[in-house]
Amino acid sequence: MSKKQNKLIAKEILNNAIKGAFLKFDPRFMVKNPVMFMVEVRSILTLILSIFPTLFNGNSDERIYNILITFILFVTLLFANFAESIAEGRGKAQAATLRQSKKDSKARRIKSDGSEEMLNSSELKIGDIVLVKAGELIPNDGEIIEGAASVDESAITGESAPVMREAGGDFSSVTGGTTVLTDFLKIKILVGAGESFLDKMINLVEGAERQKTPNEIALNTLLIVLSLSFLVVVVSLYPFMQFLGVSLPISWLVALLVCLI
């Protein structure tokens, strides 16, 4: 891919991320992240207090303070949404690039009589034998039956150093979408069209949300419990201070809750 194409893709990702950062303010999306949803609710509350500072027995002199808190919360949400949109955009752009390269790739299939024919990699079937020479993409997942070569797997694993693949032993499996750098490989295709490791990666990025790991679920549960605990503490603080005869602005409680979380 040329530098010009990379710049165009980066610009498109940035534009989509800016748009997505604002679209993610939708409460239906925010509620999926309870902590950020609480921040959004507090930002709405301080916005109301900025417009009506005397609400909840507030003081009109606190308008600037309320506006400042609202701005800080808004910027926090905006940057969080922007970072998430950038990550999603990069993942989808990479998936689109991989899908396009797979779509454009050709395969050299060896017929039963030993002759060769060129066809699209999507036309390969399980059991087909293909010949991949230096500089060519491996069309699909398979097993090496002849040859040894250095293979660039950076498109799949992210590892820049090439690896050796050869027939027999523990290093005979190859993944579609990787590139043969030296010599040649004869490969027996083991999966059908749309079932390769590369296809699964693309579908994972482009499809529905992935399943959360146990650690992510545990961490998310912990954050929810802590957030609710802090919320109870802060909400209880208001009537307690009223009982003591101390006037405590709602915006202060919002700021305190943000600091605790």
UniProtKB/TrEMBL annotation:
P-type ATPase A domain location: 104-206
CC annotations in GO: membrane
Spans through the membrane: 34-52, 64-83, 217-237, 243-260
Zinc in keyword set: no
Record keywords, A-Z: ATP-binding, Cell membrane, Ion transport, Magnesium, Membrane, Metal-binding, Nucleotide-binding, Phosphoprotein, Potassium, Potassium transport, Translocase, Transmembrane, Transmembrane helix, Transport
Keyword Cell membrane: yes
Protein origin, superkingdom: Bacteria
GO molecular function, one term: metal ion binding
Alphabetical list of NCBIfam families matching this protein: ATPase_P-type
Protein name: Potassium-transporting ATPase subunit B
